[in-house]
Amino acid sequence: MLVRNGTPPKTFADLSPVYRQPLFSLLEQARKIHREHWGENEGVQLCRLLSIKTGGCSEDCGYCAQSSRYSTGVKAERLMEREDVLAQAREAKAAGAGRFCMGAAWKGVREGEAKFESVLNIVRDVKQLGMEVCVTLGQLTDEAARQLKDAGVTAYNHNLDTSPEHYPNIVSTHSFEDRLRTIRSVQKAGMSVCCGGILGMGETEDDRLKMLEVLCGFDPSPESVPINCLMPQEGTPLADQKMVDVFELVRLIATTRIALPRARVRLSAGRTALSREAQALCFFAGANSIFFGDRLLTAPNPEESDDRALLRSLGLA
Prior knowledge:
By secondary structure, the chain is α/β, with parallel strands linked by helices. The chain has one domain (44-312): Aldolase class I (TIM Barrel, Alpha-Beta Barrel). 39% of the residues lie in helices and 15% in strands. It has a nine-stranded parallel beta sheet. The radius of gyration is 19 Å and the shape is globular.
């Protein structure tokens, strides 16, 4: 066993041998830890993700179709009307979603801005429906984070995307430290942190483990860790990247489960490229949350009926 005395690996030096052991040994470890913390047949958390403000973002994230710097066919839209968002939230709740996540294509928000006040009002209304509320709005100040918490936000999503070393190859309009600064504001306000990364952006496997090392250093630990597979978007700098190897994805999920045993590990973008068998292996390795619904911001997602059929067949519904 590479996990010593029940202590989760936290540093790159400890994570690397766990990740690189024979796959079946890694899966055995991950499944044991998952069982200890989540039970044998704990259901998969269903989350619904809605883009409440699409396109026109000033950032240059190389993977994102919503950047105004690239010709991707995604048009800039205004913030959705409050009642339209609420209708989507009610529908999500009726479909079984326990968490409603809202994303806006902005560099960030500050207290006092009209758009931020509108989001706060939307959050208050969605919270009244009895669901967990997660938002991703870009960079935050301490005060904006506090106001989101007071409005009813359960968790704030702000992904690291990749390792500190590889990050400048993906984004130039903000830094890795900027990401960490927002995460610190979220934690200071008392919101849970939803933070993960994207696989398949030209990074190495070491880069993925270095990203995980940073996540392991959060205090408190992230409440959920989305693991996305890049869905190459036409017009973006990463449009020609190949789909990540399935076994590399499974290895990272299993290692994340071992390193962060109490976190929801969310199998996020890229599921349309995974077979039912590949997704089942990801769940066995420790993934226990998905976004369901036919859209993920601007990218396609498996049909809701397909997800329900898969989870029922696995005994996870």
